[in-house]
Amino acid sequence: MRLRTRALAEFVIERALFLCAATSIFVTLGIVFVLVFETGAFLREVSVFEFLFGTEWTPLFYDKHFGVLPLVVGTLLASAIAMIVALPAGLLTAIYLSEYASSGVRRVVRPVLEVLAGIPTVVYGYFALQFVTPLLQGFVPGLAGFNALGPGIVMGIMILPLVSSLSEDALHSVPNGLREGAYALGATRMQTSLRVVVPAAFSGISAAAILAVSRAIGETMIVAIAAGQQPRLTFDPRVPVETMTAYIVQVSLGDTPAGTLEYRTIFAVGMLLFLSTFALNIVSNWLRNRFREEYA
Amino acid sequence: MRSILSGACVAVTVAITGCGGGGPAAQVITIDGSSTVFPVTEAMAEEFRNANPGARITVGISGTGGGFQKFCRDEIDISDASRPIGASEQEACAKAGVEYIELPVAYDGLAVVVHSKNTWASSMTIAELKRLWEPAAQGTITRWNQIRSGWPDREIRLFGAGVDSGTFDYFTEAIVGTATRSRGDYTSSEDDNVIVQGVSGDEYALGYFGYAYYEENRDRLTLVAIDDGDDANGRGPIAPSPQTVRDGTYHPLSRPIFIYAKVAALERPEVRDFVEFYLGEGVPLVREVGYVALTDAELALVRARFAARTTGTMYDGPSSQTTITLEQRLSR
Amino acid sequence: MSPDATGTRPSTGGALRIGDRLLASFGLLVMLLALAALAALLYDVLHDGLGRLSWAFLTSYPSRRAEQAGILAALVGSVYVMGITAAIAVPLGVGAAIYLEEYGGRGRLSRMIETNIANLAGVPSIIYGLLGLGLFVRMMGMGRSVLAGASTLALLVLPVVIITTREALRAVPKSLREGSYALGATRWQTIQRQVLPAAFPGILTGLILALSRAMGETAPLITIGALTYVPFLPSDIWSPFTVLPIQIFNWVSRPQAAFAENAAAGIIVLLALLLMMNAVAIVLRDRFQRRSR
User: Fold this and answer.
1) Which of B254, B289, B319 is the last residue of a domain?
2) In this structure, what DSSP letter does residue B253 have?
3) What was the ipTM of the complex prediction?
4) N or C: chain B end with fewer CB closer than 10 Å?
5) Number of Cβ within a 10 Å radius of residue A27
């Protein structure tokens, strides 16, 4: 008798735990469902072509245009600036920590980088608006109060630890044998690092870079606070622009009743955002797995 | 470890079942709407709370349009509005069975501002403003010298109200001629603070918002005097000030601002007390915040309207906001 | 280094030696710049906000007068929302991790769930806000309540909780489980009595890290409509609320310099809170690790 209830209890517990695990699938399904549902309704009124290739974004105004390119370009502009800061600096930091630094230095620097990564983004937004932009206005002519340059640089600082730690993992995974072989042939540390280790870790480093881009594209608060709310198709980093994420915040701060076209625009933009970051994450994971297989 | 776990469970349970601010929690007075009216309502809420410690009031800034949408969905008790309720909104409220009392609470002068380093645009005519803000200007009028020759050949950076904002509706009606007709390629926000930040950070910027926001930031902004071309109410360009807003010479950008109180909510004593405070003891706060208080006569009429629980709006009908005075309207 | 020694470092041409030095210095310089950026940020925040920090600031409600505005509602709101978030995320996350680690086979379903969780970890937080808006606020009608906010945040940190809990479970030596089975215990008995207690510090650390991530999140809560002017403490899970990042965001948006000071002071409070949580996590982990030895 006891054994039967025990077995029953075990079975119920296992099913309950399975349901917990399955929740994650429900979350993904929920995200996809909500996005697809509203985007579908949106696309019934606005053609995909106009959405993806139109150059004006004024969905809320009298003269309505639904071309998302200004938001996309705004996002890419800020993210590109962030990458220019984060990628070289992050990689160099990783090389230094992995190939040159003593363990003492490593023990100090790594936690500090973790702190950098853990600071809430609203704090970085404050930093961008109150410190970085006024600082830059001192020597960049024509830099407006809201611009892509300041938040772009701050985003780069925020992402640097991510690039650094993932690249360092990749560099670490390269077997020492490769390094020793290079030294044995007479290479300097620099030659070894740059000509042997980095190329060997290339897929791992690329995975890190792609993940960093995904992170930059999805970043919201820094650009919402400091980059502006004016959708415009420009590559000038000194003027106010609007990113996809900042648009969603802007509309959420107002009131949009469910079921209107305006409400659906945030989901359409959200869908675009989700698809791009999802694709980038998948590519990054694939590269990372392939890298692990090479050196497992 | 077990004791920690059970302690945590107890804490969480207490939290869920409510620990909050002690004592029976009063019902929340929910207010939402105009960012222009927000400073007044915020001040009223704060002082009311100081006098009545248990009061719980939330104030949102979804914009006048956003506030009305929530109001006519029966989601909030009071709607802040920087323009009267519109026809479609009246319909929505009627359909939802939401009865309201329309209460003007102050005058606002819609201020057009530029950066303090801007030396050329000290005044503009209505025609120039229209040329700058009408829908046809989208993408075409982008430089200062296109407005008036002699002004710098530099890009204008525009900041203005968002589409849910009553300021937006009022500005477009007064300047462009029809409400909501505006260009869309500018930094738009229902939060006037963003507009202030934008204009004060950019030498070539121009923006518009409620006068109170100028008063709070006058060290970094310059007012643009408006010339309406009508000598009857003063020759030449007139800048907004408490004086010119009150006597109507700052034309056409002076306007009354309102709160709309839901009749059903007024059955709750805290809501009733709050509105009475708004129209009574709290009146000095209007000037403190930067807007122009109603005259004593107008205030008496508004209080009478509230006491009588007169529902509906005074603004349905062909006469637009700018033709008859508030006092006339209230006495009708 | 003696020029004659050829032991560890092979002799090379002068130019290469310089290049070597350059790379080292360059790397060091860049690293120091990154640290300098952090120092600049902390200095800026402390410089702007420290003067504003006071007991009155911690115990006042928001106000239109910057000097009188305080962070009480946001502070209590943050703690309260974190509590509810934990209440939702812990059972779901730990349960999921237990299933995947202890019960799940190499089956296709388990692997799908694993990749799914890894992907969810990389989704931008604002997408979770859209999910919360569409699902919790609109479809399930929770409105702008603590429950809607906490549910959204719980989903956001769920992948982190699952991943860290799994690592904690994995760290428990197999011998512990095998010994328990040898004594005749069932799988759940083993998990409940042996594995979980052993993995507890790791799970707790992971949970605190996940909550500190949630505490700093602004975008998802803005998207579900959390208000910025809430001058009272939340009374229950259906109450409107505000949290520290949103209060900071509100003050940052105000152009007056005095509000910028408030924002900086609020940031100090937020960072202090996060620092405290992380310190607690580390201390707990060390203490339990020592005990289990």
Assistant:
1) B254
2) T
3) 0.89
4) C
5) 23
